[in-house]
Amino acid sequence: MQPDQITIFLSQYPDAVFNNALKLRTLLLKTLPGITEQLDAPARMIGYGYGQKYSETICVLIPSKKGIKLGFYKGNELPDPDSILEGTGKITRYVQIKDEKQIVSPAIQNLLKSAMTAYKQRTALH
After folding, report:
1. Which among 11, 39, 71, 105 could bridge 60 via Cys, Cβ 3.0 to 4.6 Å?
2. For 47, what's the count of Cα atoms within 13 Å in the CB-facing half-sphere?
3. What is the pLDDT of residue 95?
4. What DSSP letter does each residue of 40-71 carry, written as one string?
């Protein structure tokens, strides 16, 4: 995946969404070592994981004209002491990213660490 494809995809969104998405992307690539990025243009999202299967996904970045959602696979099982996860799906939960301050917040860092730990536990069982 060429990084340019991600940038081109994100450039379709308003400047604030584009800039925050790039900052969030940088954080994900830095925080989750060796993670792969997969653009799913028809679904309008970018997946971050360690394989092709949905179960190997850690999180997804879902931009929209109004903002960004950071979705977590098995988010319903993640500890959320800051109560920032939203959604009622059976498996996934997401965080509405509103600004740069939130991107670098300890709450987001903690969720990413928890998601990584949960992934390691899932894959260790197989």
Report:
1. 71
2. 17
3. 97
4. ETTTTEEEEESSSSGGGEEEEEEE-SS-EEEE
| Total length of the chain | 126
Q: Hey, is 13 helix, strand or coil?
A: coil
Q: Are 85 and 95 in contact (CB under 8 A)?
A: yes
- Residue 86 has what DSSP assignment? B
Number of domains in the chain: 1
Q: Which two tokens stand for residue 107?
A: 């709450």
pLDDT of residue 55: 82
CA separation for the pair 122, 99 (Å, rounded): 31
Encode the chain (126 residues) as per-residue pLDDT tens digits. 455 899 999 999 999 999 999 999 999 999 998 999 999 999 999 999 998 888 889 999 999 999 999 999 999 999 999 999 999 988 899 999 999 999 999 999 999 999 999 999 988 865
Place of tokens 């996904």: 57
What is the domain extent for residue 54? 3-124
CB 18 within 8 A of CB 96: no
Of 102, 75, 98, 99, the residue nearest 87 (C-alpha): 75
